[in-house]
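Thread amino acids onto this structure.
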């Protein structure tokens, strides 16, 4: 009889040893579903504003002829309805004009959504709809030189404007 109790006691101890509480395990799985981005038609575009004659532009606010800028996004994924361009660059003394980084003084570069709109400065946004059959978005802008302090001096006119795209 002692043998039977000893067997049951050993079985009981083994079952307690194997039934000790286990640590809880948490598995976290994450990721993101993203759409393929549209493809830019031009990565680096150079716009020639031509000659800006200092003797014709002596007053503050005088400006050159406007020159068109066209760039597009193509191959937008199905379901994309619009593309927003946000503009960035160095601004001229707190204005909405882009700083001339060339050698001419008292001038800046103005970016316009159309010839009659106000300037598109740093942080400005322009949204265009995606053309459904072609799945592209075309941006049409204008650029011109502006006399910011009167009496511009001769030299080169250069600026860099970055464009950051978002899709919806």
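Threaded sequence (168 positions):
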């Amino acid at each position: 009889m002692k043998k039977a109790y000893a067997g049951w006691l050993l079985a009981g101890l083994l079952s307690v040893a194997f039934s000790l509480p286990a640590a809880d395990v948490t598995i976290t799985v994450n990721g993101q579903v993203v759409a393929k981005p549209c493809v830019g038609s031009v990565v680096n575009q150079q716009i020639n504003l031509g000659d800006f004659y200092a003797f014709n532009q002596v007053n503050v606010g005088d400006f050159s002829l406007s020159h068109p800028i066209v760039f597009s996004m193509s191959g937008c994924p199905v379901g994309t309805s619009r593309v927003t361009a946000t503009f960035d660059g160095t601004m001229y003394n707190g204005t909405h004009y882009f700083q001339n980084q060339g050698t001419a003084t008292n001038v800046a570069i103005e970016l316009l959504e159309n010839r009659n709109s106000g300037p598109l400065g740093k942080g400005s946004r322009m949204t265009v709809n995606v053309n459904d059959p072609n799945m592209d978005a075309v941006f049409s802008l204008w650029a011109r030189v502006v006399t910011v302090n009167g009496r511009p001096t001769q030299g080169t006119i250069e600026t860099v404007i970055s464009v950051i795209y978002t899709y919806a």
